[in-house]
Amino acid sequence: MRIDQSFIVDLWNHMERHYGSKHTSKDDSSFMSTVGGALDLINVLDKDDFMSTYTTTIGNTIYCPFVVGVPDDVYSLYDQFIICIHEHQHVYQYQKDGLTFFIDYLADSSDRALYEAEALTAGFEMRWWYKQSLPNNIAARANVLKHYGCNEVDIAVAGKALEIASKVVCKGGIVTDASLTAMEYLRQFD
Amino acid sequence: MRLMMLILGLTLTGCPAVCESLQSRCAHNVVEVCDSHGQWQPIMNCDEIGSQSFIDPVVWSCGYESDSHTCVEVE
Question: Which among B51, B65, B69 is the nearest to A173, CB-wise?
Answer without folding.
Answer: B51
